[in-house]
Write a structure and sequence with these properties.
single chain; Calcium-transporting ATPase
Length: 59
């Protein structure tokens, strides 16, 4: 077993490195975009009432 590993980066560097790695993950990016789309849809339905407005041409 090798015990000569050194800890060179501080806690801030580790967190930044993990965030950078997460930004490169395609699955995580797709998941974040899906959550944002669902939140946008829910907010739109909540504010617009989920029905056609009076000036809409297509319902």
């Amino acid at each position: 077993m090798c015990l000569d590993q050194t800890h060179t980066r501080g806690k801030r560097g580790e967190v930044f490195g993990l965030l950078l790695d997460a930004c490169r993950d395609t699955t995580l990016i797709i998941l974040i975009l899906m959550v944002a789309a669902a939140a946008s849809l829910a907010l739109g339905i909540k504010t617009e009432g989920g029905r056609c407005s009076t000036n809409a041409t297509v319902c």
